[in-house]
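User: Hey, my collaborator sent me this sequence without any context and asked if I could get a structure. I don't really work with proteins. Can you help?
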Amino acid sequence: MMKLGLLKQIILITCLTNGVYAAVEIPDTPVGIRAGEIIELMNGGGKINPEDYVKDNYSPEFRDAFPMAQHLSVFTSMAAIFGKLTVEKISESSDFEIELNLKAESRDAYLRLALNVEPDKPHRITSMMVAPVQPSEKSEKAQSESKDDKSKIKSDKKQNLKFLDKDKLHQTLTQKAQNNEFSGTVMIARDGEILFHHAYGFASKRFKAKNTLETKYNLGSCNKLFTVIGISQLMQRGDLSIDDPIGKYLDSFPVEIADNVTIRHLLQMRAGWGDYWANEYYLENRNQLRDVSDYMEFIKNIPLDFEPGSNFQHCNTCYEIMGAIIEVVSGMDYFDYIRENIYEQVGMENSDSYDRDGPADNLAVGYTNMNRYATDDNKYVWSNAYILSPRGTPAGGGYSTTGDLLKFDNALRNYKLLNQAYTHFLLNHWEGSPEDDPGLPSRLSRTAGGAPGVSAEIARDFKHGYTIIVLSNYDFPVANDVAAEIIQDLGLM
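Assistant: No problem. I've predicted the 3D structure and written it out in structure-token form, which is a compact way to encode the shape of the chain:
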């Protein structure tokens, strides 16, 4: 059974290929019973009070490691993003440890839930992880439908869409801002043309500075897009290959890791690592970590949780390592490389991994309810200044504007950052090789970022040409909820 961190927050959500699965019965074991309770909470089960459940059924170490609001956000986030979840597959199970895959009933999205419980009664939960996962298998029917969808992209591009009621949307978002339910900027474009672009709420409540169309927001994991573009550019140039072992470029890992983990494993989050939030060195030094080398100082000593390629696990660690590989192969600082080869190429003048305590203009202050003093009466008044890392990394945390992100999306769609084959290779999750060229994805692609005081989503519909960008300086999944409502209103689900 893989070693689990205390709590890992979902920061990347991707629409996955459809499949048909039957419900799976959860075993009647101590951990199985807990898993059933957690799934009920994720599904908004009314019989259990989430806060009482956390207080009574999490071990003291696990419960007290995070603010109550952060524990509770796992349940609210899952309900908001995925709706009702059912068990698709049980990967591993014993009396006190379990891993299972969950499937959203209403959309093509999958999660992995992993739990550990105490061996003694009352078997309180000692660790929990929730992360996106690929479906365990694809039905022949789903694969056939996927091929059919791709062949129809051109013929029905302008059909079966609902009318965008811009006035109604603006009224809804204005009301959400007045109710302190949303703060941020929303953009909707089609074929690169802006249809809707408005800002709501405050970038700084202390100084009563309102969000504008030029406000820069923390992107969370949406920043991973720039790292994978950088790696793909180096691939396209022939400077590295996707199945190269990481030991070809980095000499700091043990040989059993250096020789067996490949760049493809990193890109697909199948390397064997997870996130590093509970790493002792990270926790002690997190406020001093600014450069890629600072992260590699402790990542090089993190063991694998499973054999490379054998499983999927959300992996910020993988992206920090890709940042280090970009530095070695390009001979440039990671941040300089991204700035020169992406931001400057596209004209993204308001994007970078700014220092949290630096002089950058127009940065939105993040406001979070993940504070011990947060109550229903004082929501979104607490700054995330003491929570976030001092600077973004290859795994996330850079800043951008909705306008800059549209420039980025247009450049990606028009093959300005990568050629057609490598663009399609990236958008189809690095399956096969660029020479296979499966074309543009036929289904909606959603990239999300989230952290305390950070919520972001970039949704791309390649079938009908829509781009939906929602950036917020409130907790995840505030922006994602707004994006989901827009997607549904447009009939893009």
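In plain terms: Residues 225-334 form a domain with the Beta-lactamase fold (CATH 3.40.710.10). You can pass these tokens on to your collaborator as they are.
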